[in-house]
From TrEMBL:
InterPro entries reported in the protein's UniProt record: AB_hydrolase_fold, Esterase-like, Siderophore_Hydrolase_D
Presence of the UniProt keyword Hydrolase in the record: yes
Molecular function per GO: hydrolase activity, acting on ester bonds
UniProt keyword list: Hydrolase
Family from the record: Belongs to the esterase D family.
One Pfam family of this chain: Esterase
Protein name, per record: Alpha/beta hydrolase
Domain of life where this protein originates: Bacteria
Amino acid sequence: MSKSMPALIADTTVHDFVPAHGGAAWRVFLHVPSGPVPEAGWPVLYMTDGNAVIGTAVDAMRAQAFYPTGTNVGWGVIVAIGYPVEGAYDPLRRSWDLAPPPGKTYPPFSEGTPEVRTGGAGEFLAFIEDELKPWVASRVTVDASRQALYGHSFGGLFALYALFTRPSAFQTWIAASPTIYWEDRAIDRFLETFEAAVPEGLTATMILSAGEYETEKLAPFQIGAEDEEKRLQQKKVTRTDEFARTMAERLHAFPGVRASFELHAGENHMSILPVTVNRAVQAAFAVRKDTALC
């Protein structure tokens, strides 16, 4: 008879992190490779929606980093920020954490639950910069010149907000299927402030992306479905691929910013997650960094 045991994520620990001012804890997943520390310290990939991405990110790196000359992926530290819940997401808290200010208040997701608030991205970014990064640096030797941030959907919007408000916080940014349309493109006022005063000497790589079925095109399984017309109308609002592509073109024109857009064949808004997690690993831990966007 075989023995049953938990399947753990390799070299990964879980920490429920209460911020200094108190309040609800974030669940931080910390992956540190078991090999020797590089002379310059570990590159670090920070990720939002940590519960949903940590396993994929770790295994994507492990599968490729053993063969760096064939994959261009080396080893690095992964810090995935999630919530103390059993599921992949905490919809209520992520709505607050990842959406730019000033935000709005929306009806509850379901009866008997709190109203949904947005606009807490500034506080969340301050937590990452002022508390989480020093905590990580107290545990592992990090390479401060190789810090990356990944986010999907609202997380992609957060990555843009972080670039526009704290452009020196990371060097590599991955905004997958960013909800640029959100709240009448509230992100644009932060973009305009950034555009008016791009920091001298800035070096930033920004990868934006969308799935084939985030365009005007429906996925095959959506064609003829009951909600087909509703989805087509929503696409006219979200315009994920169009807004991400034009954002990349605009950012690429800024001094020191290298921005690109990727359209992933066969993917929808949720199925794009593991694809872009892998792209984040490839960009954050590229051995030859001039090829990170290839």
